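Researcher: I've been going back and forth with a colleague about how Glycerate kinase might be arranged in three dimensions. Neither of us has a model we trust, so I'd like an independent prediction. The organism is Candidatus Woykebacteria bacterium RBG_16_39_9b, in case that matters for your notes. Sequence below.
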Amino acid sequence: MLIKNFDELATSKLRKDALLIVEEGLKAIDTEKVLSKQISLEGSIFTIRNQKLDLNKFRKIFIIGVGKTSCAAGKVLEEVLQDKISGGIILDTKPGDLKRIECVVGSHPLPSQTNVDATAKIVARLKSLTKDDLVLAVISGGGSSLLCNPYKLSCDEKAMIERSLTKGGADIVETNIVRKHLSEIKGGWFAVHAYPATIVSLIFSDVPNDDLSEIASGPTVLDKTTVEDAQKIMTKYDVLKLCKLPHCELNETPKDLKYFAKVTNILMMNNKLALEAMKKQAQSLGFKGKIYDNFLQGQAKDVGRKLINGLQTNQVLIAGGETTVKVGGIGTGGRNQEFVLAAIPFLNKNQVIVSVASDGVDNRTEFAGAIADTDSKFKSKKLGLKIESYLENNDSFSFFKEMGDGVETGPLNSNVSDLILALNK
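Model: Here is an independent structure prediction for Glycerate kinase. You can compare it with whatever you and your colleague have in mind.
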């Protein structure tokens, strides 16, 4: 089981069913298993989904990856391509057992010097390429934070801006627009550095509508946003004042089409795989399974109630997405745990709600997310835990630690946004 504390959490038939549904969703998005089915090599012909590449046409082949699934994907690429790989570097949040590709473990969600050094190394490698070289880029969620090559700012200043956006309640799309215009590798700059080499990007989506320009802030994708867009967002959340920075010079993303003429971006995976697997499992358990939304957004403390209110008898509502937490307290938690905590007062008899991060880590806590049912209301009162107080302090982790209702998976080889369900008998 990917859910390590499954037995401890499955204290009722309904909770067990809910956890079984989530388990199937997580199993369906294992990067190594999914990618192994999508790529193949016959002679010199390398097939990626419906794209075919004759590797004999290239002088050298490099693997460059960034994001939470990049080492797992790199392992599969090594197994398939073997000695055809000339080298490469991958920047991930966890280590990988790679032989031909260097795997660097960076920090997330805030960058460290390791991130800075690895990004500089990636840029140097890209700039060394020729028109006869091929870059297989592996791009996945988490790459926006891992890549750190800021424009006329220190990484600490960049991190301050990102923290201010998060605390202010900026959603992931707004945050990524600003990130692109603070960077010299995101928003298409990766393609500029690699020019005139050929780039084929294998992209694993964790964003709304699978917008490839948003995943890891679109390092290999032509960006349509502008400096003006980023400025409006920073003004909206009063970022410079909060950061106490006198100014922040923004960088326009590259618009010249010549840099993207030899770039092919391929969507490899999104959360639909997980949601369909969850729906199928719900139906096999006798429920009416319905995909409510494949990218649920909004304030974490508000969205759960809407999901619960939409439940019908004998139904499971399934969703993917990334809710937002406006941070006002000093507690510890994550959007998945806050989502579930805020939903508890609205749960009726025979209802269960679960939300987990598909990468297994909910904002640097030891939990992937949390589970709650009607009994959670009574148990919390018995333990003297006031839900409103924990919400006000953004301390959902402490609440679920006391309750014993945090979902534990450890870091996983997947990242396709959060997986959410509400179940009604």
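Researcher: What would you highlight for our discussion?
Model: I'd start with this: The mean pLDDT is 95. After that, consider the following. The first helix runs from residue 6 to 9.
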